[in-house]
Write a structure and sequence with these properties.
alpha/beta; Rossmann fold; 9 helices; 52% helix; 14% strand; globular; binds magnesium ion
Length: 225
């Protein structure tokens, strides 16, 4: 008898919990969300937010450069850039897919290699180059011959034509993007470079250390864990 009451009570609590989780509030309508994403870009707010972070990174890099010029022995200072939504904008493709599409459709479009530069990070790249700071690109794009060529061509066309290394994710790499990117920065550090700045649009670009400062650019369009 007691166990039957307990079972009924347990079922009631479980049902209440589930329904409160599932039906607490109706999620925002998908089309409204897409409209907001479009307006965020079209109003200029996205670019303004990109600029705000980019200007902070430029100001910090200017301090590093000024400090470096005072030192007699110049170390091998380096800056790490992510690629997608950091130095290259894929917004036109995202809009074309109405902020949807399968991950394969998105990747196929992006890897065509026709994405324009993000002006504020192009300026940061040029600032590093002028001060002879080494530039590394670390991207989650898969390391196939075709993708490597298209990515290098796209970087070149967008004005990113001098860098130390373009690091792409090995095709069969299983751990997370964050683990891969951290290991790549560790390798750069082990080679004697000192990463002063790491900039990306995902926390998985930035977590894990091996950089003095990290800068997180806005990206409400997709999430890479
Ligand atoms: Mg990115």
């Amino acid at each position: 008898m007691l166990s039957r009451i307990n079972l009924a009570l347990f079922s009631f609590i479980l049902l209440s919990l589930c329904s409160s989780i599932l039906y607490a509030t109706e999620p925002q309508n998908l089309q409204i969300t897409k409209d907001i994403l479009g307006k965020y870009h079209d109003s200029g707010a996205y670019e303004q937010d990109l600029d705000e972070v980019g200007y902070q990174a430029q100001a910090y890099l200017a301090e590093v450069i000024a400090e470096q010029q005072k030192q007699k022995s110049k170390g091998k200072l380096a800056v790490v850039f992510d690629i997608d939504e950091t130095v290259l904008s894929n917004y036109a493709y995202m809009q074309k897919l109405n902020f949807g599409g399968t991950s394969n459709e998105i990747v196929n479009l992006i890897e065509e290699g026709k994405s324009p530069a993000i002006p504020v990070t192009l300026a940061l790249y040029q600032q590093a180059g002028k001060a002879q700071i080494y530039v590394f690109f670390i991207t989650g794009r898969k390391d196939t011959a075709g993708v490597r060529k298209n990515t290098a061509d796209n970087l070149h066309a967008a004005g990113f034509d001098k860098y130390e290394s373009l690091i792409l994710k090995p095709v069969n790499y299983k751990p997370t993007v964050s683990t891969y990117k951290t290991a790549a920065r560790k390798k750069i550090t082990d080679q004697g470079y000192h990463i002063v700045l790491n900039i990306g649009d995902q926390m998985s670009d930035l977590n894990g250390g091996y950089a003095d400062r990290t800068y997180k650019l806005p990206n409400p369009y997709y999430y890479i864990p």
